[in-house]
Amino acid sequence: METTRRGFFQFLARGSGLLLVLGVGLKALGSRIFRDVLPARSVAPTNRKWVMVIDLAKCDGCKDCTKACTKMHFVPPMQEWMKVYEVADNPAAGSYFLPRTCMHCDNPPCVRGCPVGATYKRTDGVVLMDQERCIGCRNCIAQCPYSARFFNWADPPHTAEELKFTYSVEHNYPHRKGVVEKCILCPEMLRMGMLPGCAETCKMGAIFFGDELEDAVTNAKGETMQFSKIAAKGAGFRLMEELGTEPRVYYLPPVNRKYPSPGEKHMHDMGAA
Amino acid sequence: MNEREANLLQTLKMSGRGFHAWVMLLAAIVLWGLFAYVRQLRYGLAETGMRDQISWGLYISNFVFFIGISHAGTLISAILRVTDTDWRRPITRMAEGITVVALCIGGTMVLVDLGRPERALNLLWHPRIQSPIVWDVLSVSTYLAGCLVYFYLPLMPDLGILASHPGIGPVRRRLYRLLSLGWTGSRSDWHWLEKAISVMAVAIIPLAISVHTVVSWIFAMTLRPGWDSSIFGPYFVVGAIYSGAAAVVLAMCILRRVLRLEAYLLPVHFRNLGLLLLSFSLLYLYFNINEYLTVGYKFQSAEKLLLDRLLYGDYAPYFWTVQVVGVALPMLLMMAVLGPKRYRQFTVPGLGLASFLAIVGAWAKRYLIVVPTLSSPFLPIQGVPEKWAHYSPSWVEWSITAAAFAAFLLLYTLLTRVFPVISIWETRPAEQLEEPVAPTSFGPSIWGPAALLPLLLACAILWCAPAARAQSATKNTPAPEPTSLAVSWKALSPAEVPRVEDGRTAQPSSASDRVYLSSRVLPHFLWNPGTPSAHGEPAHSVIEVSARLRDAKGQPLAYQAVGFALKTSLGVLDYGRRPTDDEGKVALVVRDRRYGQYMMDISYQGDEAHPASRSQVQVDFGPRPKPALPESGVLISPTFSPAIGLPFLGFYGSMWCVFAYVIGYLVFFRMRRERKTKS
Lengths: 273, 679
Hints:
The structure holds two protein chains of two kinds. Chain A is an alpha+beta fold. In chain A, strand 9 (216-218) and strand 10 (224-226) form a beta hairpin. Chain A has a single domain (50-272), classed as Alpha-Beta Plaits, CATH 3.30.70.20. In chain A, the strands form four sheets. In chain A, strands 10-9-8-1-11 form a five-stranded mixed beta sheet. Chain A has a two-stranded antiparallel sheet with strand order 2-3. Chain A has a two-stranded antiparallel sheet with strand order 4-5. Helices cover 29% and strands 17% of the residues of chain A. The radius of gyration of chain A is 24 Å and the shape is globular. The longest helix of chain A has 29 residues, at 5-33. Chain B is of the alpha+beta class. Among the domains of chain B are: 3-265 and 403-430 and 640-678, no CATH class; 485-495 and 504-620, Immunoglobulin-like. Chain B has 22 helices and eight strands. Chain B has helices spanning 3-9, 17-43, 58-69, 71-82, 92-113, 122-125, 132-152, 155-163, 170-179, 187-220, 232-258, 267-298, 301-311, 316-338, 347-374, 386-389, 395-418, 449-458, 503-513, 517-521, 523-526, 642-678; strands at residues 485-492, 542-549, 561-567, 572-579, 585-590, 597-604, 613-620, 635-636. In chain B, helix 2 runs antiparallel to helix 17. At the A-B interface, helix 1, strand 2, helix 3, strand 4 and helix 4 of A face helix 6, helix 7, helix 18, helix 19 and helix 20 of B. Strand 4 (119-122) of chain A pairs antiparallel with strand 8 of chain B.
């Protein structure tokens, strides 16, 4: 066949027409098959947006939050869903205590990476874990930059009290072998209008919790603050903001602390010993 | 069939004492591994050295290693076939066998790693196409199917030859006859076979490259230092081809000796493959330099910690094993035996040693990719025992790893026992071969987009749930009390809002103008529509609560403090106290970012002359915004996003269509029909 410019343009036009039709068809097909709907495995109480604010200046590292969480959820040994780290941003600034929960990210890497939808985000912002679906691939553990996920390597020891409950996604006990565990923000407490276990037990009042849509956060001392105000005026930050995970946990910087820093505490402990 | 081929058939009858001992040894190791696995099933993954910090270990390293080895078949066979390279002929079958066996072992390693292997089918019932793990399931299964087809097609003429060969027992001949699908060796048979092979050879190359890229994405799609790298795809592909080619060379060396294949595997084959291997080792060196130099030059905090451990710390032995034993030494060795004429006599053993070293290095490299990154998380590892912070594989893991290698060798041995290890028809002198019909073009395509439909349907992952959300709209009614504190409130229109220089009023607009690349610009790519963002929220209303304080006689009380407090669901937000003006009026403007209805508590504490008083009013800050996450369904999970799903489903779906076309149409339908019309 003769090669003409006209023929070539016709060829290009036909090709792009075909691609266009194909693209439109696939798009229509895709939107028909893949709807943004999932079955409800746990009905979020209302249209809420939970937010936690941890005032690092008030945290004295007593780990009451960790103990309360472990007791309340029968957390298997060696797991700390609410973990208090000792971190230092730079050598000069010294160290401070950093309580770390699950960040319940709005762009959760764990949910993105889960192959079976066992971990999912509820409309009220809580990232939950379906222990009856988890296959134990541990991709979410690899995905989580906050080390907030744990795995039941063996069958966790059970207490009689724990075994009285039947499993639900809103409390992950009785715990089982071979699945991933994490902080689930005490959905049952929230349903009852109470603070999560860690916030409820923080004697220092360092952990504030509330609904961002109510613009109010409350701590265990009953102090209620305007969330937008303390976040803005207190220069609230989120952990590893640069990763783009959009956590739902805010921190207030550890300025003007009224308790000994971890370093001073260790010195004091050594002196006492 | 000449004497050379008769010799080749001896490999199908291996039965010496050595052969049996070898098979028994391998079987024993596999059984031991099975025992270890049963133990792991019973007591959980606690039997391994993995813990919360380092949650992937040997199993995942082995998975990546075996998938890498499986690239042998593709490279040697497909690329050389497509380019019609003549010296490939005796090599292809061995290479394809390695691919098939390595894929079976690699896939199994992932199952071994699962905490809940009995739920592995959830990957089929509830797959989420956004997950790299599902990509892996899709790609590895597609690749395995493709490699089986690709292994089988060139085997057909050999099966036909063997089925009519008198030197083979009747049972095996019947098996070969069955497997050959009645191969007759007629002209049309050859025509359709050539066509099928060439279609598969073309299809399998992009497939193989995609498979190892997808494997690398398990790591590269995380935020962890050391994995969060854009180079990982090609880096893994090159590493895979390097280790795969090394596996082929090693297999050639061993089989040549054990099965006495000197007549087939000539030094020229080693030389050509060696040059290929050498170029891939150079390429791999280049990628290594690229990967570590770009990180080491900048020394970002998290990356620095990891790199320090790799270069001088606890992972230095692995690191330098990989770089020296896995890359530098084989490279030098190959240069020596392939370059100067003096040493060319050592080509075969030299290449064998080099490829062995390369394979050892490749395995160490896989370990090095998986473990050090996991043991260097962003937050420091604190408050866990030493054993949990450092990974050392347990005997269970070592046993299963040994069993994996033994199973690989065992399956490969049995494969060479059952099928001719060297393609008979391909290595026949040219005149003996019937000329393939020249132009190989893709036949009438039955695998248009329509054929994709069932696959897309099969992979449909979402279900519908009606969204049940109801907004109860109750009208606020200020409840006037016959007390001395009269309260009212109103929502202020924007014009009415008193101008107050306050950080809070200025803050929201600047916040919503800010562009987060991750969540605002690319939400539809990585996340479903409905990314949480300030954009979707309606403007929160500013309200004014005013109260009028009167004494018992109705006279206004001036300059008295009136407190305001808002009752939220978890606590009471105190706005402090405000003085009344000379008319006894006090007003509070609330400009918080708040939605919904609340009770506002207004209280007057009283003094000596006037009793205390309290009043409540329900204020409405406007309806709560729609859920920040997708509106449909109460419960959400980042669902299908076409930008991620369609490429994967489209690519692997079309691959399945090609397989169906090749096996179903070309081999089963066309080949048989022409046979029938002839007879």
